[in-house]
């Protein structure tokens, strides 16, 4: 096949679209306190701004890849861009919490069809192995920097314009990408034999929604409430039926042989547990910086940059160099242990902690630990995968990240708000001290949730130690990981 003369311009268009999707996992975090105040969200409901996006994204991502197979990559890519831009505009214009939650879910749904088609188009545009490696390296670097850019952009837009611009900003970016797509992307016809596993999508997404909804309702109803237990039971049952169905349908969303491999299953589970803790950290530290310490949105965004810098350093400078010589778990398990230690350091936060001495060391440890984990996970997941399974393998890793973000945000937000309420009940004896006790209660709730996040990181370290037994990759294969969304 002749090389696509517009392939490098195609890379620009595709990378811009992917960067927009990655940005939306973090850009709204900084805007969340302002959005909560203006729209009157409760502390228990605020997590839906994050989880509505990640749930729809993770729950529909595998289906999105099948849709791209059926209808054609370019057509699905453009449709995803237009839909994402429209959903972003609806979210920016939201006049109620429900409207914002719905718009975020729509964003996630269109992101789920946009992301797989972007990767397929990139692979189609670059046929030379050396050029393809360079293109995926650039694409991965942009995707990996998305979280840092999201924090900074979210802070600047919220402070100097309005929180709504954290959503509006996607519309002009998407318009530029759509125009570029029509101009330079080479179309690829759909696969006539491809079939959509709609029952699988309904079962998987329904099970995840029930679980997350159950976790969020536990904040107001209590864990022993019949409705909460019913939701959690229904969620687990739906996911069990999803697994049963995937074993029997001729074209499953998730071929089970992908996750039967011990090393791959351990890597997926490690990533899910790690992201559960990380999304909780993003949520709580955003509120801690702005509500408790009084940081501006812009300074809040900048406060997260050292964490991202440490993640990049751990991934590229340490794991990238050592992975050729050591088994993956010798990086992943210590990485998760370091991240857990960083979380434990942050459990010592008070209402007047200093950034340089009390916060920064914990953020650096967490970032370094996540960086040591990311690249070995990516390399282990793709090792020995047949070409026909490479797409679903990468999509499953992305799904594990989004599902981890959804469940972790809902679960840890419930832990935090419940702990805050309990602290207030026990310590609010003098009405004159209500303001100060309330601040202490909020921080107490965050620290309890951070203890839980530390536990999740330690569990990830244990999972890695017990399940991942892969040897060191052969020379030259380390680092050839799929592009999965980085959140740290």
If you had to describe this structure to a student in words, what would you say it looks like?
The protein has 488 residues and is an all-alpha fold. It has 3 domains: 1-195, MFS general substrate transporter like domains (Growth Hormone, Chain: A), CATH 1.20.1250; 198-250; 255-488, MFS general substrate transporter like domains (Growth Hormone, Chain: A). It is built from 19 helices and no strands. The protein has helices spanning 7-23, 27-39, 48-71, 73-92, 97-125, 129-144, 146-160, 165-168, 170-184, 198-221, 226-246, 256-260, 262-292, 297-303, 305-322, 329-346, 355-382, 390-427, 434-467. The two termini are 38 Å apart. Residues 475-488 have low confidence and may be disordered.
Distinctive features:
membrane, cell membrane, Growth Hormone, Chain: A, 77% helix, 3 domains, 488 residues, 19 helices, single chain, transport, mainly alpha, disordered C terminus
Compact summary:
The chain is mainly alpha-helical and 488 residues long. 77% of the residues lie in helices and 0% in strands. Its main location: membrane.
